[in-house]
């Protein structure tokens, strides 16, 4: 069993879900991922949340740090990883990608959000480490 998340993490999580719902209700499915990303971040900004887009996640291999590793889509308040998709269907590799980003950054909470769905509640997956 995991330790409970902090109240701050839970509040951020609620805001992330709210932002995803707002974007999806305005745009619907069928657009490119980068469109959803910029609109999602705009909603976070309106809520007063700090975020970073396209955060480089370095990989350490053979005691060498490579910055060419990965780019996570959105890091909210330095606490929550958000991996955004606009694809037909989420696959296990997308979950693995989110979990890898969370492990590499040391973050406990992450969201995998697929905007290319008729109902956004079916496109949001929350994960805790």
Describe the fold and architecture:
The structure is a single chain. By secondary structure, the chain is an alpha+beta fold. It has one domain. Helices cover 38% and strands 32% of the residues. It is built from three helices and five strands. The chain has helices at 7-27, 33-46, 92-105; strands at residues 51-61, 64-76, 80-85, 109-114, 124-128. It has a five-stranded mixed sheet with strand order 1-2-3-4-5, sandwiched between helices. α1 crosses α2 (33-46). The protein starts with 6 loop residues before the first helix and ends with a strand.
Task: Describe the SSE topology.
Layout (H helix, E strand, L loop, with lengths): L6 H21 L5 H14 L4 E11 L2 E13 L3 E6 L6 H14 L3 E6 L9 E5 L1
Parallel strand pairs: 3-4
Antiparallel strand pairs: 1-2, 2-3, 4-5
General shape: globular
Helix-residue proportion? 25-40%
Could you give the count of β-strands? 5
Spatial ordering of strands, largest sheet: 1-2-3-4-5
The total of helices stands at 3
Mean pLDDT: 95
Q: What fraction of residues sit in β-strands?
A: 25-35%
Class based on secondary structure composition and strand pairing: alpha+beta
Kindly provide the radius of gyration, computed on alpha-carbon positions and rounded to a whole number of angstroms: 14 Å
Largest sheet: 5 strands, mixed
For the terminal residues, how far apart are their CA atoms? Answer: 10 Å
Order of helices and strands: HHEEEHEE
Give start-end ranges of low-pLDDT stretches.
Answer: none
Domains (count)? 1
């Amino acid at each position: 069993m995991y330790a409970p998340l902090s109240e701050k993490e839970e509040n951020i999580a609620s805001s992330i879900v709210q932002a995803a719902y707002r974007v999806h209700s305005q745009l619907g499915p069928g657009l490119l991922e980068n469109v959803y990303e910029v609109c999602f971040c705009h909603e976070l900004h309106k809520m007063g949340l700090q975020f970073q887009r396209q955060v480089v996640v370095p990989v350490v291999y053979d005691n060498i740090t490579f910055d060419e590793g990965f780019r996570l889509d959105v890091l909210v308040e330095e606490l929550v990883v958000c991996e955004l998709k606009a694809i037909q269907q989420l696959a296990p590799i997308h979950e693995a990608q989110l979990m890898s980003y969370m492990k590499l950054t040391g973050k406990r909470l992450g969201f995998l959000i697929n905007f290319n769905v008729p109902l956004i509640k079916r496109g949001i997956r929350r994960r805790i480490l």
